[in-house]
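Researcher: Sequence recovery benchmark, item below. Answer with residues only.
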């Protein structure tokens, strides 16, 4: 993919990116949005913004990490949303995105998992939910999560190291907060 990107074959490289990470991005959005409809709309926007920013991707992190960072920014966009994002994509990429949206029904949340995600949305901030999702479901390293959350576009190695260490501690606090809420709602037993 990187070779195609370097050769200027951006459409082909973007299609490969969504073949590799599209399902993972969709799963994250379903968990984050709590609704398949909202996730499908957000996925269209994610694809549009990945396509728009793809030529400027510098490969200073993994493509997967960069796509999560773009997705996070899309989730926090203020103002008007893009109208019909799929019409603004090249045809091949648009077809790939439509197929990805068609598979959204495969992201069925079981009753327990649905209750867990509802609890997460009720007691955790959106950023805390993202940290939990990326670490548990996405298996991102602490350094990758630090990169996604970095306020600057190219953080230094030292800044990433410090932020990753802080995220590990924050993750423990998030787990305790979620555990206490689950116990309060009878979804988990209190330790005896």
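Model:
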């Amino acid at each position: 993919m990187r070779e195609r990107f370097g050769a200027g074959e951006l459409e082909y490289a973007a299609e490969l990116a969504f073949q590799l990470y599209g399902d993972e991005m969709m799963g994250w959005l379903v968990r984050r949005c709590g609704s398949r409809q909202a996730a499908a709309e957000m996925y269209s926007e994610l694809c549009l913004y990945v396509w728009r920013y793809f030529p400027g991707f510098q490969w200073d992190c993994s493509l997967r990490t960069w796509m999560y960072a773009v997705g996070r920014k899309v989730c926090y966009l203020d103002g008007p949303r893009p109208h019909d994002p799929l019409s603004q994509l090249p045809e091949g990429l648009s077809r790939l995105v439509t197929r990805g949206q068609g598979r959204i029904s495969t992201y069925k949340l079981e009753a327990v998992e649905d209750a867990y995600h509802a609890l997460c949305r009720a007691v955790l901030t959106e950023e805390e939910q993202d940290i939990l999702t990326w670490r548990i479901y996405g298996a991102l390293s602490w350094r990758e999560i630090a990169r996604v959350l970095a306020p600057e576009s190219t953080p230094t190695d030292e800044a990433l190291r410090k932020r990753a260490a802080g995220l590990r501690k924050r993750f423990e606090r998030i787990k305790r907060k979620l555990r206490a809420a689950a116990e309060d709602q009878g979804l988990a037993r209190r330790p005896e």
